[in-house]
Design brief:
The chain has 307 residues and is α+β, with helices and mostly antiparallel strands. The protein has one domain: outer membrane lipoprotein receptor (LolB), chain A. Helix content is 21%, strand content 40%. The protein has seven helices and twelve strands. Strands 5-4-3-2-1-12-11-10-9-8-7-6 form a twelve-stranded antiparallel β-sheet. It is globular, with a radius of gyration of 22 Å. 38% of the residues are buried.
Amino acid sequence: MHVYCKGFVFRILALLLSQAACSPVLHAENLKPEDLVIRHLNSIGAAEARGASKSRVIQGTSEFIPLVGGSGRVQGTSGFVSQQRKVDILMKLGNSDYRGEQFISDGDKVYVAATISNHRRSSFGDFVHSQDQIVREGLLGGALSTAWALQNLDHNQPKLSYEGLKRVDGRQLHELRYRCKKNGDMNIHLYFDPETYRHVMTVYSLTAAAGFGTSVPSATDQVGMTTPSNLPGGDPTQSSKQKEVRYTIEERFSDFKTTDGLTLPEHYTIHFTEELQNGRTTVFEWEITANEVSTNLSLDPRNFLVK
């Protein structure tokens, strides 16, 4: 009898341990989008701290890295200036031909700067200009700005759907699909750490018709790199031979630090991929490191001037 009871107890313990191991997955399957958003916002800070942060200025460094379709690195500075739903994102590079990127939203309209020497936008800037909802709705840059999309759902009114736990780079992350109320052609997926509920990644993807941005010189051309003739900035007659182009933006956020009651990422990367149907691919990356965070400064309205 004693042996039977001991074996029974071991089987119960094994069952409980098995259920405990599976419980995060079972819980994830029942997670609602609004619950995930609330937990994420609380990971940034208490409601009082978030509400008290009316403006924010983040200053740091930036580095432009061509990964495919070019070579060399260009270093510079970065800045995120935001006030409620207004935002000015600046990646300034120390290069006279390609000066970086700048995206501004006054909360309703968006301005994308022409930052290359011939007074045009880069291929990345031109793509963001065509999909400016990612700036207007506060998606680009994530929680680094007060305009963060998940803090302004009442205004943006997107359609959210919870997609479950997905394995990304060897770890499980909560996936939230974000569908913009307008210009909903782009697929937008937000990813969150299952333990902290911090936002760690966003992936934007879009398949576009041929000829998109073919008049826009590639950023790699502007820093002494080579662009194939069928990429933006090359032979424009090649665009007629293309049926579609695939674009992907991948944002990653890491190295979280708490300042003034708010936990925000100190390291931010933007990974931009352009894939042509004939197999030509260009991949650029921007690495941004935040060195200084200031809140509730009195900001000049010209920071958010949409030209």
